[in-house]
Specification:
By secondary structure, this protein is α/β, with parallel strands linked by helices. It is 51% helix and 13% strand. The protein has 13 helices and seven strands. It has a five-stranded mixed beta sheet with strand order 3-6-5-7-4, with helices on both faces. The chain has a two-stranded parallel sheet with strand order 1-2. Helix 5 crosses helix 11, helix 10 crosses helix 12 and helix 11 packs across helix 12. It is globular. The two termini are 14 Å apart.
Length: 325
């Protein structure tokens, strides 16, 4: 990450590195930045990511603040791209993350981002791609809430949305970063994110659940998850009770499941047409699998949404300090 920042084509910038922990990360960061005055390294205490962001924010001197996860490799134009749209109207931007480990799972997740951001014009802030904003915006929010440990980028996006702050997606702000590359990593990451998302809906319910339409929109995925589980249990039960293999409940379950999976498989066709790259079609099986895992994570998240450990490291593979040296 530090090596990639040295290649930025932006004229004047500073980097505040927040590092810590018992594994030598602080020492490595200090060594990597010791001969470059553009970098300052501050020690991080075990208080969660938002506490680290507040520490960095207090040390930063610029009027524009950009956030970048430490497991990211930025392209040379990464900083220029998200800063350029910031003006009186657009007050926050998000970059374009690409997986460091391209596997069917990480590329399946990439399809979801292409569909949401590029095809349908969403502008949800995501930390894995980097986030830039006018310093005054975060000061108006009172900084980053340190009792929020997980999903801090979503929490920031949600709080900005409550203020009506306009956000923008910057496709040229490319960042290669660690994304879930296996089904196990995807499950862990999705469960973590869904807990954070559901917790934010509860915490900011006056905004997200303020009426029928917003409530249905924000709770749709959780309602679908519980409906899927209930239908999966009740349909076979009905067939067993009436001893009918072709019971209408089984037929309806089959139709529902086919719709659910085919709807997600169509994502590959949408992205292939948009990108004009038909190789995406070979991954048509991935979105249905990820959707099943996501629905399971939604059910689990609603049952244990308060369980949000501050020290979770995300989907990156485990490596020792010796590997990094």
């Amino acid at each position: 990450c530090i090596r990639s920042l040295r290649q930025l084509d932006y004229p004047n910038w500073e980097a505040i590195i927040i590092a810590g922990g018992p594994d030598g990360t602080l020492h490595l960061a200090q060594s990597a930045c010791s001969h470059d005055a553009r970098f300052r390294v501050l020690e991080q205490k075990r208080l969660g990511k938002n506490a680290a962001l507040n520490l960095g924010l207090s040390a930063a001197t610029g009027e524009v603040i950009a956030l970048l996860d430490a497991d990211s490799v930025a392209c040379s134009g990464w900083l220029r791209a998200p800063v350029a749209p910031l003006d009186v109207e657009v007050r926050a931007t998000t970059g374009n993350p690409h997986p460091l480990r391209p596997t069917p799972i990480s590329l399946g997740e990439q399809m979801e981002r292409i569909s949401a951001w590029e095809v349908h014009g969403a502008s949800t802030l995501q930390g894995s791609g980097g986030i830039a904003f006018d310093r005054q915006v975060i000061q108006n929010l009172g900084g980053f809430p340190e009792d929020v440990y997980v999903g801090v980028d979503w929490d920031l996006n949600a709080r900005l949305e409550t203020l009506g702050v306009v956000r923008a997606f910057c496709p040229k702000a490319v960042v290669r970063t660690e994304r879930p590359a296996t089904l196990g990593e995807y499950w862990d990451n999705e469960l973590r994110w869904r807990r954070a998302h559901f917790a934010s809906l509860v915490r900011l319910s006056r905004h997200f659940l303020r009426g029928l339409i917003p409530t249905l929109t924000n709770l749709y995925i959780y309602a679908l998850a519980w409906f899927t589980v209930a239908f999966a249990i009740l349909a076979p039960a009905a067939a067993l009770i009436w001893s009918a293999v072709r019971h209408p409940a089984i037929v309806l379950w089959g139709v529902f499941l086919a719709w659910l999976l085919a709807h997600r498989a169509a994502l590959a066709a949408e992205v292939a047409a948009y990108e004009r790259d038909w190789r995406w079609l070979r991954l048509a099986w991935v979105p249905p699998v990820l959707r099943i895992l996501a629905l399971g994570a939604c059910v689990r998240a609603t049952l244990a949404w308060r369980d949000q450990p501050a020290g979770f490291k995300g989907p990156r593979p485990q490596r020792s300090v010796n590997d990094l040296v």
